[in-house]
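Onboarding guide, step 5: your first structure request.
Type a short instruction followed by the sequence, for example:

Predict the 3D structure of this protein.
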Amino acid sequence: MRTVPGWGAAALCLVLLVGGCGSSKSGDGGQSAADAKSAATGEIPDNQVFLTFKNPAGGYSVLYPEGWARKGGGSRTTFQDKNNVIRINVKRGSSPTLASVKADVEKMKASTPSVKVGAAQTTTIGGRQVQKVTYTSESPPNPVTGRRVKLIVDRYVYFNNGRVAVVDLGTAVGVDNVDAYRMISRSFKWS
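The system replies with structure tokens like these:
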């Protein structure tokens, strides 16, 4: 067999060049291993893009993470990705109190026995008082594995002129979505 001079070195360079094509570093636009692990657990990445959802029928607007699935509209809207959820329910009602907000969560135990009510507080968002209660529950069973995930939910209850918006921001226990959910809770605005 005859070899062509210089072809061996050219072939080696081509193999090395092609072999390096699959490499990705976080600085070149690829996803780092830490970002991929965070995404797999349901953690909302720091570079997540948020969009504004305007609900004329519900009378509000709110930020939500781009790419999350949306269901419903009008008085009930849900955004979901993995075990993360944003549920918004708007209804007519009177100004909520910490006691009434905690009582509403306690009523959920009838249909979801895993609900455990935690801390409750009044906070100010956008110059208005908002009631907040934290609770835990278990997710429905995964249709493939049957596994349930323990969820932690921050419930914010906003009031304006006879309208009440109940906003649940839930994620799996141990997943750090505090900053993203704080931004979402502060973005809620009545229209």
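Each response can be followed by summary notes, for example: Residues 1-30 have pLDDT under 50 and may be disordered.
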